[in-house]
Amino acid sequence: MSLEQLIIKCKNRERQAQAELYKLFANKLFTVSLKYSRNYTEAEDNLQDSFLTIFNKIGQYNHKGSFEGWLRRITVNTVLQKYRGQGVFNIVNEETIEEVSVEVIEDDISLDYLLGIIQELPDRYRLVFNLYVLDGYSHKEIAEMLQISEGTSKSNLARARMILKSKIETREEKKNVKSL
After folding, report:
1. What's residue 104's pLDDT?
2. Are 146 and 84 contacting, i.e. CB atoms less than 8 angstroms apart?
3. What pTM value is reported for the model?
4. Sign of CA dihedral 129, 133, 135, 141
5. S-S: 94 plus which of 19, 118, 136, 151, CB 3.0-4.6 Å?
6. Is 91 inside a domain boundary?
7. Which residues constitute the domain of residue 68?
């Protein structure tokens, strides 16, 4: 069965087609959900909520553009909607912070370590960091998605980078002390 046929069957609310669509995209969308969630369990819940939204809104998909991109967008928006409801982005101070760059001298920093320290960032910093750095959204787009100002988006990104830089530098210092 082609993807288009599967989508049409899902639009007709055929359970078997929905199960097949879930199997086809669950792993990819779980990765998206995990990137924006606080932990694994929350990512699983967000994935389920995303699929409920996908199945409810699949009639709105007009077969233009990437279906996977449409699914990813719904997944990101589902997670972000939960954070908006929790007041994560209620920030009073929007002072501009100088851009921070992170230099890693050693090449042995694992992807798991990097993803782990990104996951540890406070919600508002992690979400902006992921949207800007990992998914390539502009500050204007992030501001609209999160219902914050562009200045807040830039400030949160800078703060996220400062925290990540500090964690990486601390790790590097510990490695240097151990090698003595």
Report:
1. 47
2. yes
3. 0.73
4. positive
5. 151
6. no
7. 3-85
